[in-house]
Design brief:
It contains no helices and 20 strands. About 35% of the residues are buried. It has about 210 residues and is mostly beta strands. The protein has two domains: about 80 residues, Thrombin, subunit H, CATH 2.40.10; about 110 residues, Lipocalin.
């Protein structure tokens, strides 16, 4: 785990390596008037490893940058100098969708099917909820409810404070594998889309409180 601070003509403020596979990925983040360039330089521990490689996009606030790694860890980095503030190890891989930060809580999904809620300040876990497959989309929090789509085909509505399930809705038809994507909530209605293994796509609108159509 390395962090470097630069003062050069290029304008790079800092870069941070979280050490995985042989690839360099630069991410530019705008936070107010501050532009950050995050450098993820990965070195493979085992070139013959059969495990899949996933990339996590970042989420940023005035106080920190949040990014996941392929070994299943979520990091918080200092927005000013890139130093590591905390690290939380999940039960699997962080998926390629950025976390959601709401009211001091970081919400993130993972490849093994969990949704996690962590204290944004220190990374301590508040709760976790397990679906039946990978959570491949960014969780959405609206009016105290967290909405998360899973590859098991269900859209889950959870209490954002406790993680308890309020309802779930199957977004496809039949028994084909379905991936429920990111949703939006407007005026008490949840709008979303999903797709299945045989190239069918679905759009749906649900009551945000009950999950009924």
């Amino acid at each position: 785990m390395k962090s470097k601070v630069h003062a050069s003509q290029s304008g790079t403020k800092w870069q941070h390596s979280i050490g995985m596979f042989a690839m360099v990925l630069f991410l530019t983040i705008l936070i107010g008037s501050l532009i950050l360039v995050l450098n993820l330089a990965h070195q493979s521990k085992n070139a013959n490893a059969s495990s899949s490689i996933s990339y996590s996009k970042v989420a940023a606030s005035q106080v920190g940058v949040y990014v996941g790694s392929n070994d299943g860890a979520l990091f918080k980095l200092d927005a000013q100098n890139g130093s590591q503030l905390w690290r939380y190890k999940t039960k699997g891989n962080i998926i390629p969708a950025p976390p959601t930060i709401v009211n001091g809580v970081v919400y993130v999904g993972s490849q093994e099917g969990f949704v996690y809620a962590l204290n944004a300040a220190d990374g301590t876990p508040k709760w976790s909820f397990q679906t039946q497959s990978a959570v491949l989309s960014t969780p959405l929090v609206a009016n105290g409810v967290l909405y998360a789509g899973s590859s098991d085909g269900y859209l889950y509505a959870l209490n954002a404070q406790s993680g308890s399930q309020l309802w779930r809705y199957y977004t496809g038809s039949g028994t084909a594998a379905v991936n429920a994507g990111t949703v939006v909530v407007d005026n008490g209605v949840v709008y979303g889309s999903s797709s299945d293994a045989v190239a069918h796509s679905y759009l749906y609108a649900l009551n945000a409180q009950s999950g009924s159509q």
